[in-house]
Amino acid sequence: MMSRSEGIPATSSTASPRPFHGWIVVAGAFAVSCFGFGSAYTFSAFVETLQHEFGASRGSVSLVFSLAGFLYFGLGLVSGPLADRFGPRRLALVGMLLTGAGLVLAGLARTLTEIYAAYGLGVGLGIGSAYVPSLGAVQRWFVRRRGFASGLAVSGIGVGTLLFPPLASLLIRDLGWRGAYMVIGLVVAAAGGALALLIDGDPRNRGQFPDGDATSAPSQGPTGASVREAVSSRRFAVLYASCLICALGVFVPFVHLAPYAMDRGVPASSAVLLVGVIGVGSTAGRFLLGNLADRLGRSASLTLMYAGMAASLLIWLGGERVWSLAVFSFVYGVFYGGWVAVLPAVTTDYFGGRNVGAIIGVLYTSVAFGTLIGPSAAGFAYDASHSYTLPIAAGVIANAVSAALMLLAQRLSAKERRF
């Protein structure tokens, strides 16, 4: 297990005389996560409606989400370096506007191909423009409490997952699926765009330093590895592989849990709430496990998240009644939320903060490829067998392998120098 400090240099604990702005940045990143991913994770509420509207298979409809997911994780490869160079606020604002526009255009679509274009490109490009830059900004504002701050920022995903899918279900009932997409899109563009303006990428812009500490070196900026140094290291290769393998199954519940429950006679409104329960667990995991990781060691904690997701998927594998599915949703959400919270902090611990946006962007391409394959493959597997047993079992195995890889990463971290 790594030390509590995770190899971070000691800093002064003297408080800055002005209020510390880092928590405002966390609030902005929280809003981007909440509105961006919350709106994206409404997709489970639309799956059956889109199937009936366009006479499509479940695999074909699931591909809409997979394409969007591929873009919003993969685009970090571009948005991360852009944020490192130009600052994250503009990218976060543009991302929220694109996400809202994509949802509105999805409501106007007349074919499934137009859904692919509107939702896939709009939501995918939008979240991809906003997420990595806003998350990278948080890393620069904190050192000692980086795990907790990251967890708080990305807990917006959990809150959004709790709020938006039930809201979408109500809007579909009252306004139809087209109206639902339009309303959600306008809310994301207006509220998400406004709150994205809270993000600031560098404490020095406000005459402050990480954690609100005073320092005698006002010209010192973030230190760390170059992108080339980071991605050519063995530690990065193992971390990348663990994320890629995990991502093959990690987003399957967000698309298929509600249809799975409805196939077993659970009413649509209750089935969609199961996705919201993932959000409840996710929020708890980001707060509790993100903070705990700062104390126990973030690399070791990341291993625990993979193992926890594998174990929780076993509950889904045997789940037939709504109560057992609710237990799965909450437990899975806790460990999923911890994974999302701890991963960027581990990346910054390993490679420093100087190019953290770009490095996280490269790392998240692994999640992009996994998201492109996983949910759509689960849908096509269901179309072929009318069962989710194979996709769920594959998720168990994938997370177990990822946990084993993180154990290897911890061994490598003791040998490779920190930046």
Query: Based on the structure given, which CATH architecture is correct?
Result: Up-down Bundle
Give the uncertain stretches in residue-range form: 1-16
Oligomer: single chain
Distance between the termini: 19 Å
Tell me the β content.
under 5%
Report the CATH topology name: Growth Hormone, Chain: A
Provide the gyration radius in Å.
Answer: 20 Å
Largest sheet: none
Number of helices: 15
Number of domains: 1
Overall shape: it is globular
Helix and strand run: HHHHHHHHHHHHHHH
The first-level CATH class is given as Mainly Alpha
Task: Give the structural class.
Answer: mainly alpha
DSSP strand count: 0
**CATH superfamily label:** MFS general substrate transporter like domains
Helical coverage, percent range: over 70%
Secondary structure topology:
Blueprint: H1 22-40, H2 43-54, H3 58-74, H4 76-86, H5 88-107, H6 112-141, H7 146-196, H8 227-231, H9 234-250, H10 252-263, H11 268-296, H12 298-317, H13 322-351, H14 356-385, H15 389-413
Key structural traits:
single chain; 419 residues; mainly alpha; Growth Hormone, Chain: A; 15 helices; 78% helix; disordered N terminus
